[in-house]
Amino acid sequence: MTNEQLQQYVEQLSLDVFALPFRHKAVFNERLRTTGGRYFLTDHHLDFNRSYLVDHKIFRGIVIHELCHYHLHLLGKGHRHQDHDFKEWLQRYGGLRYSPRLKENEKKNHLYECEKCGTLYRRKRKMNPERYRCGQCRGKIFYKSS
What is the mean pLDDT of the chain? Predict the structure, then answer.
């Protein structure tokens, strides 16, 4: 999907779901990693994470979520996540409350093993095994898998 197709999709969804026009810009933002979309209060444009396109139902829910922010803000109602109006609109129009975690953003543990005794070491961050020795037998450590 291109930015032009996204713009048309958001405009059409806004008319179909809210019966209100979307008159600003909607684009993909490649820098978004942990969120599905973002609404900008200053110029009213919407950013979306392209990674969520794999599941149409989830992406539609994210677009509705951002359109709730958009329309409520322009109507002068509560557009923040904790506001009653926002929660009510999300439920009424079928928007997602939050973006589900993507597989690519899940934390990977790195696994290291001692050559001599076979002791396993799990680490969240990658390390240089040349700089360390096994705490049990002082043997060399090598990278096994992530």
Answer: 92
